[in-house]
Structure formats: structure tokens, C-alpha cells
Write a structure and sequence with these properties.
The complex is a heterodimer of chains A (235) and B (402). By secondary structure, chain A is an all-alpha fold. Chain A contains 13 helices and no strands. Chain B has two domains: 25-189, Glutathione S-transferase Yfyf (Class Pi), Chain A, domain 2 (Up-down Bundle), CATH 1.20.1050.140; 205-381, 3-Layer(aba) Sandwich (Rossmann fold). In chain B, the strands form four sheets. In chain B, strands 9-8-10-11 form a four-stranded parallel sheet. A three-stranded parallel sheet of chain B has the order 5-4-6. The termini of chain B are far apart. The chains are: A mainly alpha (235), B alpha/beta (402). Chains A and B meet through α4, α7, α9, α10 and α11 of A and α3, α4, α5, α6 and α7 of B.
């Protein structure tokens, strides 16, 4: 069949998600495109592949920042849905791709796509983040992503016997740190004022961040909201 | 006009000194001062005692020497506390004035890059709340984490360019009675280390000239808002960031180059916590093993939380697969502190690092067993309740190695 404007479809795969309507895919795409940051992150694509050559995830996954920039620039609604439901969680968010000669920021586009995937509670996103909930709980409640008490052998078995040694010695090792705000603290990275945490909770509620959590994990939301609301009421 | 490969190679063979007038990006500080003049934001000025350095496009950046408010890193404080204690120890060796605040949260950027369970307004509000807390003390923020630094630089750009974001953040901050404060400069601790490197060398007591090190420049330090990173024509000809390498060279260390220096460490934010097959593979196959094969360093040095963790912790499982690994990983702050006589365990806290660091200390002529035994004595006193913990009083004095 000769190539015409109607059937020209370069590199396009079959629709991998026919169960989702085109209108729904378009709605999600427009949500990404309407983010005020979108225009700062995408200026077109030379298709030079410099972003791919710099990308760590492209070496290990079937993943390409170039495809993301291209699909977004072409407004390929079907392909963008494949990306939002599957590819985005492979990105390492290192931003090596920003050496793009067109000044694109594919890593930034992935951030926007991820936000939309989370805000809309896509099932694939819920699946990916399922094992991550305890980290979200920690960061939202304590204001720290990680804490010493997370270093448990069952969570980091591949880090070797050191983890077991650490968890056995945790209370005393933590007391043997000269930094005043760290000494003896095991459930957070450092001592944080209660007032500071109340301000953080205020930010989560006021900016709609708690609604995002509700969309992705209702059980986690209930846990967090109970603790935070009680703390905020106590003042 | 066509440029030949030879012309490009010729141009790149010379040290590059860039003219800030020709910079391809705007100077964000001018935009900050314009917003301040309109009454939209408060710009916190760099303290008078500062050192000037050059950034990627030849602009001047002011690095405060003291009177600093330390925006700590959750990954450093939680999992590699010798990183944090070394930064503070270095300040204390010079009697520099600083605050280690409890009115600080992390930037929460690690979570944002890992899960996107946040949004632009929340992330900006977290940043500004921390900056407002620093401003209340009158001390200038110094950011310990590379991701916090990169994330905050990006948020600063967004705040400058999007009025609706500023308005929304101001609405949230009003509820806490805090103004929208942005510092005149965003300063990463490794920039302070770089600016102070010659003063460190003056106080150096441990000869490090027998050490070969590789450097992993942290992605979020110099790839996000690239123009803010320090560059120096005398280091890599001004074509790579000068931080870390400049510090190590000032300490007399031989810095060896390797081909995958631009690659990330494999941290991946989400990956390092819940999908470590990627992290382990990338950090060992693309970084550690390449360093080992090409230059076989005694140590690899970096300047960010995730890089130290990833490059260090990933080596255990690679060793189990008989991969060519086994390079201890330290931060530039720990290296500088060690060079000035910081106690290997009370201050540098080597016991939190898992790749074998003993051969490195042996090569430096440091009898680590002696200091480990001393530290074990500290722990016994803590266990028996005779001591509540190690304090600066125990840790401040430099060790004089015999």
C-alpha cells in the first residue's frame, strides 16, 4: 500500500490499551499539556537521540526519553497513553536528558506525566506505588524521606550483612553521633520541632496534596489524615 | 558554515573561560531583585563574609563562609550521618558561626521524583517554608543535599516565571505568617567545601598524595539548572563542574578520569527503594566496575546523598556475582575532614559505610583498629548509661596520627 497522509504512521505501535476510550486518553494528555510548566519542558524534537544516549534507564529498560518528547510534541494521544500507563516509572529522574540541544526536559515531562497518572489514580500507577506506601507515610508525617529505623534486613537484604549489624546496634550507634539534631533519633533523620511539622501538615492539606494521596491509596490517606488532623486540632 | 570535527576537538583542547555577557540564559538573581522591587518577594542577601566563585557561564556566585543555616539532608542524616557530622566538624575547626536547625523539613523532593505524589504548589511551599524559617533566624541557607539543591533551583525558576504559582504559595505561607523568601543564591554545601578548599589544605595533617580517587559529579547538582554549578578553567579545562575534583586536588589527591563520568549513579529515587535491580546493575556495571577497570582507584568521592548510598551499598550484591567491585565511597566533606584529622568513627562514621574501607585507611597509614577500639569504648559507656552519647566535646579535637 502506498504511503499517504492518511496512513502514514511512523513507528506507531498498535493501540495497547483499546479498553480505554480515545476521549479519556485525550483528557489525560490535555491535563499534562495544560500544566503551566509544560511549555518550559518541551520545545519540539530534533530526533537526534542525545537524550537517549545519556539516559541510564534506556540502557536497562525498553524506555526512551526521545519517544516521550516526540509523542508529546506530535500530540500522539494513543502513544502518550502507553507512556503514561507504562513507561514513566522507568525514568530515574536524574535529568541527564536535559543536555538536549533543543532545550527539552524529558525528565520534567515525565514528572508531569507521573503527576497526572497519580492524580487520576491509574491502576498501573497504583500497582507501581504499592510497595512504596510506607515511604510516603514517612515523608508526609515526619518531613523526612528516610530514617534510620527503615534500615532493616528484610527491606535491604541486598545491602549485605551490614544492615543486620546496623539494625542490631541502631539505638547505640545513633547516640554516638556528635550532631545535636541527630543524636539518638531513630524514627526520623533529625529532630524536628512540632510546630514545623504542623506547618508541613498545613501545606499538605492546603495544596491539595492530601487529595492526591486519597486518589492513589485511600487506606494510606485515612491513616495520615487521622494523625495530621488530630495534631492540627491540638495545635 | 560547516564546523569540522577537528575544529571542535581543537576548541575543546583549550581551557574555557566564558563571558557572562554571552550566557545563553538569563541571570535569575536579576529577576529575583526585580520581583523584590515590586514587593512580591523578599530576597535574603548573602552574608558579608563570603567567597566569590565562577559558575558555568562565567557569572560570579557568592558562597557564604559562615552565618549559615544548615538545610540538612534526610538521606545523609538518616543513613550516612558521618556525611553531616563532617560538614559541621569542618565549620567548627575554623570557629565558623552556623545553625543546625530543628525548624526544618526535608525538601521532600526525593519523594516527588520517586512517586509524584505531590504537586508544584506543595513542593514550592515546602521550599519557601524552610527558607522563611532560615530568614527568621537571620542565617543564610546552606543546602546539604544535591537533590534539594537541584529541586530548589528548579522551583526558583518556576516561581520567577509563573505568577499564579507565586500567588498560590503566598496564600499558603500567609496561613503560617511567613513571607515568600528566596535567597539571593542557592548554595550547595560542596560549593562551600570548594570555596574553602585551600584553607582546608592549610590545616591538612594527613598526607593523601598516595591516594588515587575517582569523582562522581552528582546529577542534580550540575544537570538541573546547569548554569548555577561551579566551573573553573583550571579544572577539566572549565568543561565539567569543578566541585569535588578541585577539593581533592587541593588535598594533594590524584584524581583519575574514567569514561562514564557523566552517567548517573543509578539511584533512581523510586528504584533505590523498591526496584533495586536497576540501581544495583547501573551503579556497579556503569560506574564502579568501569572505574575499577580503567583506573582502579583507592576511593571514589561524590557530593550527594543518593550517590554515596547507591555507589556504596550496591557493591555487596555485585561482589556476590563476582563482579569487579570493591571501591569505598565517601563524600568530599568526609575526605576533607579525614585529611584534617577528624576521628574516623566519632566524626567520619565509617561504620555506616558497607564497602570495605579498611584498605583505604591502611593506605593512608591510619591504624583504624586503634580508633575503632576507642569508639567501641564510647559505645560501651553509652550502653552502660555512663554516657548519654557522643558530643562535639568528644569529637572536635583532631586526631594526631602517630
Amino acid at each position: 500500500m502506498p504511503t499517504t497522509q492518511e496512513n502514514w504512521n511512523p513507528g506507531k505501535l498498535e493501540d495497547r490499551h483499546p479498553e480505554v476510550s480515545y476521549e479519556e486518553k485525550e483528557r489525560l494528555f490535555l491535563e499534562v499539556k495544560n500544566d503551566p510548566r509544560y511549555e518550559d519542558f518541551l520545545y519540539g524534537c530534533f530526533e537526534c537521540g542525545i537524550c537517549v544516549s545519556a539516559c541510564p534507564s534506556a540502557r536497562f529498560y525498553d524506555y526512551s526519553p526521545r519517544v516521550i518528547a516526540q509523542a508529546m510534541a506530535r500530540e500522539d494521544i494513543v502513544r502518550v497513553y502507553d507512556i503514561i500507563s507504562e513507561d514513566i516509572w522507568n525514568c530515574a529522574q536524574c535529568f541527564s536528558c536535559v543536555r538536549c540541544p533543543r532545550q527539552n526536559n524529558p525528565g520534567g515531562l515525565v514528572t508531569l506525566l507521573r503527576e497526572v497518572a497519580v492524580n487520576n489514580g491509574l491502576q498501573e500507577t497504583k500497582d507501581v506505588l504499592q510497595g512504596y506506601s510506607r515511604v510516603i507515610y514517612k515523608v508526609m508525617l515526619k518531613g523526612n524521606q528516610v530514617s534510620p529505623d527503615m534500615l532493616q534486613p528484610d527491606f535491604f537484604p541486598d545491602w549485605g550483612p551490614w544492615v543486620g549489624q546496623f539494625s542490631a546496634n541502631m539505638p547505640v550507634w545513633r547516640k554516638a553521633i556528635p550532631v545535636d539534631t541527630l543524636r539518638g533519633v531513630t524514627d526520623a533523620a533529625w529532630k524536628t520541632d512540632r510546630k514545623t511539622l504542623l506547618e508541613l501538615y498545613t501545606i499538605w492539606f492546603e495544596t491539595g496534596n492530601m487529595d492526591i494521596i486519597k486518589e492513589i491509596d485511600e487506606g494510606l490517606y485515612d491513616l495520615l489524615a487521622d494523625v495530621m488532623q488530630e495534631e492540627l486540632e491540638e495545635g | 558554515m560547516t564546523t569540522t570535527v577537528e575544529e571542535i576537538l581543537e576548541r575543546k583542547s583549550h581551557a574555557v573561560t566564558r563571558d557572562p555577557e554571552q550566557a545563553p540564559t538569563h541571570d535569575i538573581r536579576e529577576a529575583l531583585f526585580e520581583l523584590e522591587a515590586k514587593g512580591e518577594i523578599v530576597v535574603q542577601r548573602v552574608p558579608e563574609n563570603h567567597i566569590e566563585v565562577k559558575t558555568k557561564y562565567g557569572r560570579t556566585k557568592k558562597i557564604p563562609v559562615e552565618h549559615t543555616w544548615h538545610h540538612k539532608s534526610c538521606g545523609q542524616c538518616g543513613h550516612i550521618p558521618g556525611y553531616t557530622s563532617s560538614i559541621f566538624w569542618l565549620h567548627r575547626q575554623f570557629g565558623l558561626d552556623y545553625i543546625d536547625p530543628t525548624d526544618q523539613t526535608s525538601c521532600t523532593g526525593w519523594n516527588y521524583y520517586a512517586s509524584a505524589t505531590s504537586n508544584a504548589v506543595a513542593q514550592a511551599a515546602v521550599m519557601i517554608r524552610n527558607f522563611a524559617a532560615a530568614h527568621e533566624t537571620g542565617y543564610f541557607p546552606m543546602i546539604h543535599c544535591g537533590t534539594s539543591y537541584g529541586h530548589y533551583k528548579e522551583i526558583r525558576e518556576q516561581l520567577v516565571h509563573h505568577k499564579e504559582l507565586r500567588d498560590e504559595v503566598r496564600r499558603v505561607l500567609d496561613k503560617m505568617g511567613k513571607p515568600l523568601v528566596i535567597p539571593e543564591e542557592l548554595v550547595h554545601y560542596s560549593e562551600w567545601i570548594h570555596a574553602m578548599r585551600n584553607r582546608f589544605a592549610e590545616k591538612q595533617t594527613v598526607d593523601m598524595s598516595m591516594i588515587t580517587a575517582t569523582v562522581h559529579p552528582a546529577c542534580h547538582y550540575y544537570k538541573i539548572v546547569a548554569e548555577d554549578a561551579i566551573y573553573d578553567p583550571d579544572i577539566y579545562g572549565g568543561q565539567r563542574t569543578a566541585t569535588v575534583t578541585g577539593t581533592l586536588q587541593s588535598l594533594g589527591i590524584n584524581v583519575a578520569d574514567y569514561s562514564t563520568w557523566f552517567d548517573c549513579c543509578g539511584f533512581g529515587f523510586r528504584h533505590v527503594l523498591v526496584e533495586r535491580d536497576f540501581t544495583r546493575s547501573f551503579s556497579t556495571l556503569r560506574k564502579i566496575e568501569v572505574m575499577k577497570n580503567e583506573v582502579n582507584p583507592d576511593v571514589t568521592v561524590t557530593h550527594d546523598t543518593g550517590c554515596v548510598t547507591t555507589l556504596d551499598k550496591s557493591q555487596f550484591s555485585a561482589k556476590a556475582h563476582d563482579r569487579k567491585v570493591g571501591i569505598p565511597v565517601l563524600s568530599d566533606a568526609q575526605m576533607a575532614a579525614l585529611a584534617m584529622g577528624a576521628h574516623p568513627f566519632r566524626v567520619v562514621q565509617f561504620h555506616w559505610h558497607s564497602t570495605d574501607w579498611r584498605p583505604f585507611l591502611d593506605k593512608l597509614g591510619i591504624n583504624w583498629q586503634k580508633y575503632w577500639d576507642e569508639f567501641q569504648g564510647d559505645l560501651e559507656l553509652i550502653r552502660s548509661g555512663q554516657k548519654s552519647g557522643i558530643t562535639w566535646e568528644d569529637a572536635d579535637a583532631p586526631v594526631v596520627y602517630g
